[in-house]
Design goal:
Ricin_B_lectin, Immunoglobulin-like, lyase activity, signal, Trefoil (Acidic Fibroblast Growth Factor, subunit A), mainly beta, 883 residues, lyase, Rhamnogalacturonan endolyase, globular
Length: 883
Amino acid sequence: MKHSKRLTAAAAALTMAASAVNSLGVPVAADAAYGVGGNGKAVMEYLDRGIYAVRSGSGMFVSWRWNADDADDAEFRLYRDDKLIYTSKKGDATSYQDNGGGTGSQYRVDCVEGGKVTSSEKCRFNSGTNYFDIKLDRPGSQYSPNDCVVGDVDGDGQYEIFLKWDPSNSKDNSQEGKTDDVLIDCYTLEGKKLWRINLGKNIRAGQHYTQMCVADFDCDGKAELITKTADGTTDGRGKVIGDGSKDYRNGKGYILSGPEYMTLFDGKTGAALDTIDFPVPRGKVSDWGDNYGNRVDRMNSGIAYLDGVHPSAIYGRGYYTRLTWSAIDVRDKKLVKRWVFDTGNNKSAAGWGCGNHNVMAADCDNDGKQEIFTGASCIDDNGKLLWTSGDLHGDAMHVGDLIPDREGLEVWQCHEDKPYGETCYDAKTGKRVFHISFTKDTGRCAADNIWAGNKGAEFWGAADGNVYDSAGKKIGGTKPAQNFFIYWDGDLEREILDGNKISKMTGANKIDRIFTANGCGSNNSSKSVPCMTADLFGDWREELIMRTDDNSKLRIWCTTDTTKVRLTTLMHDMQYRAQNCCQQSAYNQPPHVSYYLGSDAPLPARPKVLLNNTPDRTDIPVEPIVTEPVTTTQPVTTTQTVSAEPVVTGKPAAEIKDGEIYAFRNADSGLYLGVDGGNAEKNANISQSAAKGQQSRFRAVSAGNGYFCLVSLLDEGTDYAMDVHAKKTEDGTNIELYTLNNGDNQQFRFVANGDGSYKIAAKISGDRSCVTVSGSDGNVFEQTINGSGGQNWFAESVTVQSGSTVYGDTNCDGTVDLADAILIMQALSNPDRFGVDGTEELHLTAQGRINADCSGGGDGMTSNDALAIQNYLLGKMTSLPEI
């Protein structure tokens, strides 16, 4: 865990009562039975490394995938222009902020397993912005890009995008009027249009008429498209399906007669491979609840692993009254009906009227096969009704591990009919967990873990303005937008997506905007949804796919936030992959992973899946290519010829002042020089990290002749200084803490580089070597000066409060804020991780524990100290400690 925007801001609205100890920081056992992301048999897509590099600040942010078939301890080596700049070891992030890179830099990532390079891939996506544009072949000024789905159509491990074009005269089923044709395109991520399918005049345009089922249905390594077609549909090669001369539109624009088809299209060419009659024909229109064509053509679709091995297409028809679902497989490039579920027209039939404007797939009964969630009903993998709540139709739902303390998954559903309001159900049984009451149609709801200040997911919706916890208890009165989610910043809490704006819940009553996708528009009116969100490439965070305001491009926005989390690509989680296809259906809903993600829980077990098309590698180096020392605990010592004269250039810095306190930030990684573990003791290791607290503070003490001893502020800043181990001068010699003795191996000269940074030259080497780091989590060591960015440091002056105890500054970062309060609660509830001897990088220190005791008259650190900090920040107290 690190101090990030989430931690410092999310603490802002913690309920600081003592009872909060039990709701913060306590790790729950990963729900492995339901949450490993795969059953060991499911066949999923082979994916390449998915490297992207985008402009971030003055450098480049580089990100890549950790796939399900990569080793648990896989090491990733990132090269810029064939120079090693970062090594990601087990547990390290698969992304890196390269402050030395630019848009012309060429990046490569090698995966090393068991000491051997198992893959070596070059970055294919490089941008001078934080997005990539796909220029579209717009079919006319009346068309805008709408829903998207992804699939790998050629088996190269890179997704292609299936795009549905929406004409400006598209209609809701309740509206009469003729519409222009519905078109589906397929584009590569590089922007090449592969084909266009025209569904023709006998398919009406609108949210509820056309959905796209995309997956590698026959597991041959290449994705197909399955969708509803009709006479006059033209495939990607120009072939017309059925009778192209027919026009079944009536005077009001509805299509209530004529044959209905389902067609399998080749993903690479758009060619129609097979066409069958639509599994559930419309029959008599009025049997569906009206005679003008509203309810009969309410469609849904997605994919689900019904046999636990390969994806099936699932297609729904009807939900206000008669509820039907069909499951379709692909065998030998032919469509094969697996089963059909149908309540018929009997109102008393179980499941009748219990469908949504959306669908989700998930394995709720732990049998390795996915069920279909239609809203108030759940259909088992065998096509039989598993349960129905009887709560009828709704507009939105979310299915995932929303309450990690409960076994299995949960469903969050809003209701258009009685009982109205919103309900949380057990996904396996349909039994209510809790209900939020309302008196009329409740059109929206949302649930996910979006706030670190509450354990588990947060729940809210259109019933009222409140946010609720997993017991249905109100925790805030300022609800976020209720349309969509996205994993965007570096923590494990999810962010809120609404239109082109991404926001973060930073307190029980506080929502902060963190990103705006300028120049882009959302879809589907007040639903304000993107074309798609998906873990398209890069690390586990999601990309945001939107249309540009002029409808000429798809814009793929990429996060540039750094993270400490290594997580397998979400697209290798069975549930997320299936729900990612389901998201495009009717009233779009965001996909959810099968496990719980949150800063209050351990990371999930890795997914157990099979891959469809892992290629033979012919481009792997025989031995790892290393052009710079690999980041290790102790850098490799190499022998170099040293000239008789020091190679230090530039003038000694006059800006470093005797007695001043500094934090030293590396120019290459942006991380700080600091003491591992935050404990002052002999031979304590010096490394770099994101920490900027007491462990990263040093007092410059003049040793004469322009040299300084750097004395750690740990242990009240009196005993320990930065030290070149054993007075050695060889490259790779470790830098550590040792008892202050003013020896040459504890004296350093600051040499200005001319850009505000310095080299910290070691006197023991005759100024030939300096303090060096290699890699973003690298160890700090002595190395001959070579001009690399890992040898340049910015000296940031630190002002501290007089006296050794800074009351309230629990994390010892020089300020009192609500991050200090949350650290108190975490240390109390989970001392193994966050206590003085905790395993987390930014655990409590001995000094921090002293600082934390700011209430109760010296009774030690308690939850009352966290409450005192909150009151101080709210202005209820003028100073700390509380007297």
